[in-house]
Amino acid sequence: ARPKVGYFYTGNANQNIMLQKISNIKIEDIMSLPIVVNDQTTLYDTIVTLFLEDVGTIYVNTNGSLSGVVSRKDLLKSIIGGSDINKIPVGMVMTRKPIVTIRKNENVIVAANRIIEYEIDSLPVIEDFEDEGKIKQRVIGRISKSNITKLFVELCKG
Amino acid sequence: ARPKVGYFYTGNANQNIMLQKISNIKIEDIMSLPIVVNDQTTLYDTIVTLFLEDVGTIYVNTNGSLSGVVSRKDLLKSIIGGSDINKIPVGMVMTRKPIVTIRKNENVIVAANRIIEYEIDSLPVIEDFEDEGKIKQRVIGRISKSNITKLFVELCKG
């Protein structure tokens, strides 16, 4: 049996240039800008934002802190279910906590694993901030299957 | 300058075990089952199929041959635009030719490049068949950013 440490094959280092390279890539190196709306935003405005920004997932804030996530799938489902998209706020249809997240200094392999494990399209990249003595989380980035696929393409170019 | 052939770094072969591995992976090794509907299917039934099969893109056939592609985004857009989802057939809102496709014996790097270049979520894997003297294409698979992300995770496990 060959020795393993976490995800990294620990054989002859010279034989694994690509893995070494990947193990040095952090979330902040490849993350995209997050698209965030307030929880009172109507479904209609949320959908318009989704098209304008051309993203698959939108993050939702309540008082400046991450409170939920809403995907194209969630929006389609609520419309099919008969929601009045001009009246219902996104806060009523979003997926609430526990939200699967990641931090900017984590490794990109951790993100890819988490996306596959939880069967989601993207992870919000969060950081802590203090608000009236409480620790809350704000969204500072987004990492998706698109970021991973782009990285794969770049790495294969050598 | 280091020599390049296509996407593959052609330096010391021993130093690029991972790239060598990737260059041997074909579409048919990692593709998923395609979800296909007939062009007369209503938008409502297409959306239901999309949820039941949990895919982001559905391929559309006309007389057994690939004629279009429809995504969650296309469906959201047509609903927002006021389409009667119980009456309109998917053939009226799908994206028509030229459809970006791939074949089962092509390399996985070609697929990843094509997905990024055309900014799409998935590629239908097609093969030719003869119908009344004409060469047509049928869909035999689907390759998406999910497949690429899963492959990335597997490769990083060593």
Low-confidence stretches of chain A: 3-11
Distance between the termini of chain A: 29 Å
Morphology of chain A: globular
Q: Mind telling me the C-alpha Rg of chain A?
A: 18 Å
Domain count of chain A: the total is 1
Secondary structure elements and pairings:
Two copies of one chain form a homodimer.
Chain A lengths: L3 E2 L2 E2 L7 H7 L3 H4 L5 E3 L4 H11 L3 E6 L2 E7 H9 L27 H10 L4 E10 L2 E11 H12 L2
Give a short synopsis of this structure.
By secondary structure, the first copy, chain A, is an alpha+beta fold. Chain A contains six helices and seven strands, in the order E-E-H-H-E-H-E-E-H-H-E-E-H. Chain A has helices at 17-23, 27-30, 43-53, 72-80, 108-117, 145-156; strands at residues 4-5, 8-9, 36-38, 57-62, 65-71, 122-131, 134-144.
Structure description:
The structure is a homodimer of 158-residue chains. The first copy, chain A, has 158 residues and is an alpha+beta fold. Chain A has a single domain, classed as CBS-domain. Chain A is 34% helix and 26% strand. Chain A contains six helices and seven strands. In chain A, the strands form three sheets. A three-stranded mixed beta sheet of chain A has the order 3-4-5. The longest helix of chain A has 12 residues. The relative contact order of chain A is 0.19. The N terminus of chain A is likely disordered. At the A-B interface, strand 2, helix 1, helix 3, helix 4 and helix 5 of A face strand 2, helix 1, helix 3, helix 4 and helix 5 of B.
